[in-house]
Amino acid sequence: MSAGESAPGNRASSKVMNRADLCKRLVARLKSDEAVIGGIGNTNFDLWAAGQRPQNFYMLGSMGLACPIALGVAMAQPHRRVIGIEGDGSILMQLGSLGTIAAQAQKNLIIVILDNGTYQITGGQPTLTSRGADIVAIARGAGLAQSAWACDEKDFEARIDIALTADGPWLIAVRTDDKPPTGQTERNPSRIRDRFMQGLGVIH
Amino acid sequence: MWHDILLKVLKANQIRLVAYVPDRVLAPLISALAADDFFTVVSPSREEEAVGIVAGAWMGGTRGVVLMQTSGFATLPNVLASLAVPYQIPVLMVVSERGTLGEFNIGQAMVCRTMRPVLDCLGIENHTIARDDELQFIADKTIQQAFVTLAPACLILSPLLTNSRLKGETR
Predict the structure, then answer these.
(1) B132-149 and B2-12 helices cross at what angle (nearest 10)?
(2) Which of the listed residues A91, A171, A186, B29 has the most CB atoms within 10 Å of its CB?
(3) Nearest to B53 among A64, A71, A197 (CB)
(4) What are the pLDDT digits (tens) for A106-159?
C-alpha cells in the first residue's frame, strides 16, 4: 500500500497543501465518535471551520499541549480514537510529549502535524522546520515508529483511514501553505469544555 | 507515613491517573503509586505536559493528579491561566516544597517565593500541609472541593511533613 507504515517519506518532496482543505478531508473521514483536539490558533480555526462537532476540543491557550491533552483523553477512553492536531511551532515547544506518547504506546491515538514552516499567526516568522528540523524524523527518534509524511491529499486520506482502524500511536505530518484560516472558534472556554464532555459521553 | 496517608486519600477519591515529574522527596509516594494496580502512572518530560494529560483525562472521565517539585510548579502559570482555570478543569496538583527550611540552593529559594503568589493571583485553592494529623483532612477536603467546584487545586507538602530525619529527631 502506498500509505505503508514503514517509510517515513520526505518533507522536501511532500506537496504543500492547504490547511483548511486538509481539515475538511480529515473531518469527512471520521466515522462519528472520534475525539479531535485542535491546537492553538490557525489549527483549531480551520478545524472549527471544517464543521463543528461535539467531540472536538478547541484549545485557546496552552500552546503546545494539544498532544498531551489528546493523550489524556485517549488514556481515559481507550475504545475511542483520539486525534490531536498541532502546528509545527506548537509541537516544537513540547517535543518531549512525542516521547511520552511513544513510551505510553497509546494504541488509539493519532497525531496530525500541520507544518507550514512559520509562526503564521504572529507575523510569519520562520520556525525551525523551515531551517531543516524534520518533525517525522524527530518523532521517529522519540520512539514513534509509525510516523510519516503524507505526500499529497490522497496519501493523507489513506493514512488517516489506516490510523482510524489499525493500532497506533500514529503521527502523520503534512506540509501546508500560508493561506489565512477560514474561520474563528468561539471564545468561551467553559462552553467548549462542557460540549466536549457531552460529546464524549462523560456528562449529559 | 505521610505517603501512605496521601495514597489512601487519592484512592478514596477515585484519582486513578498519576502524572509526575521526578522529585526525591516524592520518591516513596511515586514508588507506592506505581506498585498499586489501582493507579496508572505516567512520567512526562515536563510539568506542563503532565497538566495537559491530566486535563484531557478528566474531560474523558478519569480523575488525575500532577506530582512535582516547587521549581516545576514555576513552569506552569501559562497552562494554569489559559487551560485549567478558564476551562474549569479540576487539575489536582501536589507539590513537594523545596527552597525553604534549610535550602542550600539560592535558585530554589527564589523560585519557591513565586509559588504561593502565582496560586493566589490565579485564585487557585492551595493549602500547605505540615502535620501528619492534618494531612488526611486537608487533602481529602481539598480534593472533594476541587472536583465539585470544577477548579484546580494545589496541595503543598512542607518539609515539616515530609522530612523523615526531622521526624526521627522529634520522636
Answers:
(1) 30
(2) A171
(3) A71
(4) 999 999 999 999 999 999 999 999 999 999 999 999 999 999 999 999 999 999
* Residue A197 touches partner B, C-beta closer than 8 Å: yes
> Does residue A3 form part of some domain?
no
Rounded to whole angstroms, the Cα distance separating B73 from B76 reads 5
Report how far residue B145's alpha carbon sits from residue A197's, in angstroms, rounded to the nearest whole number: 20
Distance CA A96, CA A53 (A): 29
**Selection from B59, B101, B76, B102 nearest residue B21 by Cα:** B76
Q: What is the DSSP letter of B103?
A: -
Higher-confidence residue of A62 and B165: namely A62
Domain of A135: which CATH number? 3.40.50.970
Tell me if A69 and B62 make a contact (CB, 8 A cut-off). no
Q: What is the mean pLDDT of residues B112-119?
A: 98
Architecture of domain B2-161: 3-Layer(aba) Sandwich (3.40)
Residue B38: band (very low, low, confident or very high) from pLDDT cuts 50, 70, 90? very high
CB–CB of A72 and B44 under 8 A? no
Asked if B87 and A76 come within 8 Å (Cβ–Cβ), the reply is: no
- B12/B148 Cα distance (integer angstroms): 15
The residue of chain A with its CA nearest to that of B86 is A189
Between CA A28 and CA A37 the distance in angstroms is: 16
Q: Mark yes or no for CB contact A68/B87 under 8 Å.
A: no
Domain ranges of chain B: 2-161
Q: Which candidate in A56, A65, A194 is best for mutational testing of the B interface (most B CBs within 10 A)?
A: A65
- What ipTM is given for this predicted complex? 0.97
How many domains in chain A? Answer: 1
Angle between helices A153-163 and A19-29 (to 10 degrees): 40
